[in-house]
Amino acid sequence: MTWKGFFKLFLIVLGILALDIVSKGMTHFYFKPFEHAPHFFPFGGIAVFQALGIDFCIHHVTNKGVAWGMGGNLQDFILIIRMVIIAALAIYLKRSPKAYSQRYSLMLIIAGGIGNILDYFIYGHVVDMFHFILWGYSFPVFNVADASIFMGIVSLLWMSWKNARRQDAIAEIE
User: From edge to edge, which strands make up the β-sheet containing 126-134?
Assistant: First the structure.
């Protein structure tokens, strides 16, 4: 990878981390945690919009586990696992020629992982703030880092699906 390519990836990570850190900092300092907030508009949050059965609000939720707060009592173990996964992805990205086509997806995952790890050192837990209620279903609260990880994983799955279809098409021609 060239320095120009590396710099572009670095700027993506830096941008995601900056957005994540600012949004979590503002949430942490300006919103009471969910457990202590008065329960007015959905779940004590500040309404952003309501349309077509979709409610979106912002409020402060602390998360000591992984998705949906699972494993909250294993916080140190989860921190170590996250650090190992990020290191493994970075090594794969650096050393594998196949990783070049996946570089943006992998950097989204790495940036999101770093953002959530930083939370453990800054706040002692992950700060979540975006909450959607989709036609009565309360979607789990998430943050910019979580969205980045999700988009990276979806992108990898999409590329894998496209490659599988391409391989199937080639196999049919032969």
Answer: 46-51, 54-63, 126-134, 137-138
Q: What is the mean pLDDT of residues 44-73?
A: 78
Residue with tokens 């650090």: 83
Active-site residue set: 128, 146
Its domain, for residue 29, covers 3-173
d(C-alpha 22, C-alpha 87), whole Å: 24
The pLDDT score that the predictor gives to residue 143 is 94
- Is the CA virtual torsion 160, 162, 163, 167 positive or negative? positive
Q: What is the pLDDT of residue 43?
A: 57
**Alpha carbon distance 112, 94 (integer Å):** 18
Per-state percent for the chain, helix, strand, coil, to nearest 5: 70, 15, 15
- Split into its structural domains, the chain has a count of 1
Per-residue pLDDT tens over the stretch 114-168? 999 999 999 988 999 898 888 888 888 899 999 999 999 999 999 999 888 888 7
Give the 3-state DSSP-derived string for 82-126, with helices as H, strands as E and coil as C.
HHHHHHHHHHHHHHCHHHHHHHHHHHHHHHHHHHHHHHHHHCCCE
